[in-house]
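Q: Here's a chain of 662 amino acids. Please give me its 3D structure as C-alpha cells.
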Amino acid sequence: MREKIKRGINHWQMVTVYLMIYDAIVLNLSYFLALWLRFDCRYTAIPQEYFFSFLKFAPIYTIFSLIIFWLLRMYKSIWRFASYTELLRVTASTAITAIFHGILISLLYGRMPISYYLIGPVIQFILVLTVRFSYRFILFQRSMLESAKAKSDANIMIIGAGNAGRMIIQDLIRSDRSDGNVVCIIDDNRNKWGRYIEGVPVVGGRDTILSAVEKYKIKKIFFAIPSAPADEKKEILNLCHETGCELKSLPGIYQIANGEVNVTDLKDVAIEDLLGREIIKLDLEPVYKMLTGKTVMVTGGGGSIGSELCRQIASHSPKLLIIFDVYENNAYAIQQELMSKYPNLNLVVLIGSVRDSGRLQEVFSTYKPQIVYHAAAHKHVPLMEVSPCEAIKNNAIGTYKTAHAAMCNGCERFVLISTDKAVNPTNIMGASKRLCEMIIQTFDYMVKNHRENEIPQLHAHQPEDSWEPHDEEKIKSNTRFCAVRFGNVLGSNGSVIPLFKQQIAQGGPVKVTHPDIIRYFMLIPEACGLVLQASVMGKGSEIYVLDMGEPVKIDTLARNLIRLSGKVPDVDIKIEYIGLRPGEKLYEEKLMAEEGLKTTENKKIHIGQPIPFEYDGFFKDLKKLMEAAYNEDEAEVYELTKSVVTTFHPTNDKSKKLQTIA
C-alpha cells in the first residue's frame, strides 16, 4: 500500500512540498532577522512586545504568503529553466506579502520598528530567490562540467572582445559541440585587458598572440572581428598562421545585426582573407537593367569567368542567353545548372570554336546577339610557350573573327576579357592577348570613322585576291568595343590555388617558381563585376582595370595555404623553388607607361587610354601572322608578333633558337 502511494507522487510534487516547508521557515526567519538586526544582533535586547507580536502574527502571515506563492505559480515552475518570468513572480509575491505584513501586523498588534518593515522583505526576497535560482545554477555548473569532459581537450583563443566574440563564447559554453574550451581572448583595446567575458580573461593585444598560444596551449583560434578592415585582418591572420593553430573566422558583420552569431557561422579562413584589401563591390544595377530583355552571348561560357558571367546574366531576365564553348563538358555543366535554377530562362547552348568563321557567322546571323562577352581564350602561359601558333590562332585570330561577326550582325557592345600579362609581355600568351586588345581598338576606330566596310574577313589559306574590302552597303555598324584587363583570378580553372591544394593533399612539396615572384589577385565575382560594368561604361577602345590593391607574393600565398591546412611550412610540407617557367616574369603590370591612367566615377575602376598605332597596316600584319600560325612556322610567329607588339620581349624567343639550330 505504501509503495502504491509512493508511486503516485511525482518528483515535482515532492519538490513542491520541500519548497513550501522551506518557504514557511524563510518567511518567518526573514522578519525575525529584521528584528535581530534592528537591536544590534542581540536576541536579549529585543523588546518582548515586538517579539510576541511577531510570534502571534507568524501563522497568519505564513498561510497567507503560501497561498500567494501558490496563486503566482511559484510551485509549478520548472526551476532548472528559471528566467526573467520567475524573477518577476518572486518580486511580485514579496511586494504583496510585505504590504500585507506591514498593514495587518500594525492593525492587530501595534506598530513595529521601521527597519522591520524594510529589512524583512529584503531578506525574504533574497532567501526565496536564492533557493530557486541556485537549483538552476547547480544544474548549469554540472552540465558545464559534463560538457567540458565530453568536449575535446582543444583550447580555443578568441580574437576580438566585442559582441561577436561574446556571442561565440556563449554559444560554445551552452552548446553540446565538441569544438573545445575557450581559455583566453585577444583584443587591442587596452581598457579590456585583465578583464573577463563570460569568465574568460582578455589577456592582451595582437602582440601577445604567439606567447598566449604557447602559455595556454591553444589548438584553435576563432577570429571574431567581422568589421575589421582588410589590411588589419590580414596582419592579425598572418600572426595567427605563424602559430600553426586551426583557424576559423566569421564571414561578415551582418550576423551581429541579425543576432545570428554562433559557432556554426564560423568558416575556415579562406585564402582571399589574406589579400590585404576589401572585396570590391560594384554598383551593377545599371548593368542588370541593361541586360533585361536583351540577347546576350558569352563565348567560353563554360569556363570559370564565362560561367560566372552566365550565372549573373541569367538571374536578370535576358531575352536570350547564348553560351558558346568548344568544350562540351563545361557547356553541359553550366547548362544543367542554369536550367535547374532558372526554369524560365530562355537559354541556348552551342558548341563551336571562335576560330571557325562559318560557325560564328551562322550563330550571329541566326540569334543576333546585342551584347557579347568574349571570354574564350587559351590562357596557360607554359602550354602556349610550347604551342605558340595555337595561341595566335585561338586568341588573336579567334578574337578577330568573333568581333567581325559581331560587327556584321548588329551587336551593340563587345567586351573582350584580357589579362595583365598583355602589359609588356614576356610570353606568347600575353603577346597574343595584347594583339586581342589591338584588334578591339582597331575595330572600334574603324566603326567610329565609318570605315567598317574596309575591315577584311580573315580565312586561313585564303587566296590573296579574295582579301577584299566589303561592299559599301553591306555593313553599317554601331558596335562599341572595349576590353577588361584582369589579374590572376582566385579559384579559376588553372589558377595557382587549386594546384597548391593538390600538392598539399599529396604531402608536398609545394612547388613555387621563385621566392620573389608577385602577382595581382582578384576574385571571380570581382572579375565578373568588372566585365559587366565595362559593358555599360564603355564608349569604345577603353581598357578597364580594377584596383586590385598591392600585389601578393606567391611564396607567401603558398605558406599561408599550408598553414590554413593545419601544417607547418618547411616542416610538415616542404616548399620547393623550381625556377621561372618559360615566358614567366617576376611581376605583372596593370598598365603600360604609355597608356596613362584615367579614373572613373567608381574609384576602384581605372581606364588605360589606348596607345595609337598604324591601324591600316595592322590588318596586313595580322594576315601575315595568321598565315604563319596556320603554316606552323613558330619562328615566323615570334618575329611577326615582336614586330606588331613592340612591347613584346620574349624570354623564350623561339625565332632566335630556331635560327641558331638552322
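Q: Can you summarize the key feature?
A: Residues 503 and 510 are 6 Å apart (CA to CA).
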